[in-house]
Amino acid sequence: MTEKSKPAVIALEEHYWDPDLVAMFPGREGKRVSDVERRLLDMGELRLREMDEAGINIQVLSHGAPGTQKLDAETSKRMARQTNDRLAAFIATNPSRFSALALLPTPDPAAAADELERAVTRLNFKGAMVHGLTNGKFLDEKQCWPIFAKAEELDVPIYLHPSFPHAGVIDAYYRAYAAAFPELIGPALGFTVEAATQAIRLVISGVFERHRNLKVILGHLGEGIPFLLWRIDESLARSRADLSFKEIFRRNFYLTTSGNFSDTALTASITEMGVDHILFSVDWPFISNTQATSWLRNTTLADGDKAKIFSGNARKLLKM
Prior knowledge:
Distance between the termini: 24 Å
Number of strands: 9
Strand order of the largest sheet: 4-5-6-7-8-9
Radius of gyration: 19 Å
Order of helices and strands: EHHHEHEEHEHEHHHEHHEHEHH
CATH architecture: Alpha-Beta Barrel
Number of helices: 14
């Protein structure tokens, strides 16, 4: 692939922080701002410079975890609307370089569906991102289904992003090693298990039988599910033979490369999902833009497949 023939690059799990919303996150009082957090708060020169260094044309911005998922219903509604409006105003200053996924007030699912519609139809957002559990509750619970109905109606995806596991899970499974290996609770394992559990529960809940055209995005090359797909499918069929987990996952889910730049994982994901369901992401600023683009450019994929992953599939899914 020559410099001239390089495809456009759309990165669609790229985070930022709104200062007012972040101030409401638990445990922020008096905390020193880290280098990663400085990047999350940057909406200017630094962000654009690091995009340009890596050859990223567009970032699809999404607010970092836990979003509004740990707020009470009224506060979540107010902050989601305010945060989305601020993000839309920022994007309007440079629409050729930035787009967005909406923040949803999932503590009030009906309001979350309304905010999704407003964000898509009035702010030109491309879908929404939800971070982990909503005050301890999973997204597959029936009270959350209005969100999925609205996403299907609007034909926009919901991005299932991980957050920290339930406190009881942390205590039982991770606490013994958390001090020495704090990332164990997060990207090393905890995030993956939490997000994969959300996805699997969604499939077996029946939401995709009600909303066959619903589209869901998983980061990190599918949170391990592509590797486990045959086993999950075979095992669940023992309880319900008419449920094809594999068929639903392949049809309704899309995977991004965010924070998982493994040739082996990419091969498994393409083999199970097809290249049309794989999209490029970095997971900036938790990992570097240049590491992500260099990795995909240097894979042995055909140029046409690289072009699909770098931007072609995102343009179709997000209607960009």
